[in-house]
Write a structure and sequence with these properties.
The protein is about 45% helix and about 15% strand. The protein has about 260 residues and is an alpha/beta fold. A six-stranded parallel sheet has the order 3-4-2-1-5-6, with helices on both faces. The two termini are about 20 Å apart. It binds farnesyl diphosphate.
């Protein structure tokens, strides 16, 4: 299946017409946007130009997701591990949400998109947080697509933090150890209130999850693509959704 997908998704392949079943659109699509650096290297450009073009692909994915009726779109924009990159690249990535929102926020407001952020705010620069907070505030009453940026996000830390909060509640006598369920963990995650992704897309050819939504992806359908993120467009989202629609989701059962 993966090989088939890879051939479908090579960027030099002619695009095929995709028709979707409108009653089976994934409610939540999550995307690991990988391949910006390689896209730039291949063109002899600095890596940051890859990220700059990756930002444009975020817009294309958002418009396409909104158009087909996806309710939640989560984009992995910066991981807790990405701080290990050179300072210039990190600084550039930290400025991107501000730049993206300066260009796109009015249109997102108009298109009824709700912007959210999911991540550990402690290490983020104040200008990054301020841009996200302004966008969240201006769009909080919007009822359309939820565009959720995972920024300084790490799934293991998120799970550890959830467990810590539950331990605090136990210590405070608000919760008993025997009462803890999966739902308690879920409701203390950074993604609380957002349903688990139905579909995860990863571009850039790597076949791994990279500490992204490990708890929430337990039963998601995974679609991997060789294309680099800056090449991602409407047709790639539609192809991934078409692939999702071919899958039978059994959640560990038999039907
Ligand atoms: C991984 O590609 C990509 C990132 C670490 C950054 C992703 C960010 C964007 C696509 C832009 C986000 C836009 C907004 C609006 C926040 P890589 O650099 O690891 O690529 P490589 O594997 O080819 O080196």
């Amino acid at each position: 299946m993966i090989n088939l997908l890879r051939s479908l998704w090579k960027s030099d392949q002619p695009r095929k017409t995709v028709s979707l079943q409108h009653d089976n659109i994934p409610e939540h699509v999550a995307i690991i946007m990988d391949g910006n650096g390689r896209w730039a290297n291949r063109r002899g450009l600095p890596r940051i130009i890859g990220h700059q073009n990756g930002m444009k692909a975020v817009k294309r994915a958002t418009i396409a997701a909104d158009e087909i009726g996806v309710k939640y779109l989560t984009m992995y924009a910066f991981s807790t591990e990405n701080w290990k990159r050179p300072k210039d690249e990190v600084d550039f990535l930290m400025r991107l949400p501000q730049e993206f929102l300066a260009i796109e926020l009015d249109e997102l407001v108009e298109k009824n998109v709700q912007v959210r952020m999911m991540g550990h705010t402690d290490q983020l620069p104040s200008y990054t947080i301020a841009a996200m907070e302004e966008a969240a505030e201006r769009t909080k009453d919007n009822t359309g697509l939820v565009l959720n940026f995972a920024l300084n996000y790490g799934s293991r830390r998120e799970i550890a933090d959830s467990v810590k909060s539950l331990c605090n509640e136990i210590q405070a006598g608000q919760l008993s150890l025997d009462d803890i369920t999966e739902d308690h963990i879920t409701s203390h995650l950074l993604s609380a209130g957002i349903p688990d992704p139905d579909l995860l897309i990863r571009t850039g050819g790597e076949l791994r999850l990279s500490n992204f939504m490990l708890w929430q992806l337990a039963y998601s359908e995974l679609v991997f693509s060789d294309i680099y993120w800056p090449e991602f467009g409407r047709e790639h989202l539609l192809e991934a959704v078409a692939e999702f629609q071919q899958r039978t989701r059994r959640y560990g059962g038999l039907t």
